[in-house]
Please model this.
Amino acid sequence: MTVPDTAVHYFVRGRPPFLNLSDVAEADQDRVLAALAAEHAAGRNERRFGRLYLDLRAQAEQRLREAFAAAGGVVERAAPHYFTLGESPWFRRLSPDMDAIVIPLDQLPESSTSVTWWDSFAAMAVGEGIGLPVAPDELRGRVHRLTDIPDLADRHGLPGPPADDPSDPLVATHTFVEIQVWSDAPLAFV
Model:
């Protein structure tokens, strides 16, 4: 098994990279969610966003932030910039206009980078009450560091291939390792 040595940030071509719904001002959220819903309806985006997603994302980020800070991580942003460990076919196919920025792992700031071995919703168990999967006990509620990746890959393996439906949240949690960067350091790669 070859463990990827890159972090990949996916974004829709024509938009700036590193956009995060958590950074949208509350007054603008309905407008942004409506635009995303229209894109989904037109077949330009497989993901579904809404109020529930925003609420769960806020819960996941709060748990991530608290766990990372408790582990000595440096948190410079309220919400992280999101990456996958290596390529993610699941993310790649969420939009026909998907683009990506690839950054070597050794270029990410170690002190402000966390890793969840599954999607952060599953790792932080925020969707358990609505049927979303949760990570196994040994991974649930835990954040890891970049230096933990080789050991995590040995113990838990790398995620499997995506299923046929890229919008299925039950599948998405198992298809990638998520990397969170809690600083704006990745913006230097744009």
Remarks:
- The first strand starts at residue 6 and ends at 12.
- The chain has one domain: 6-189.
- Residues 6-189 form one domain.
- The chain has a mean pLDDT of 88.
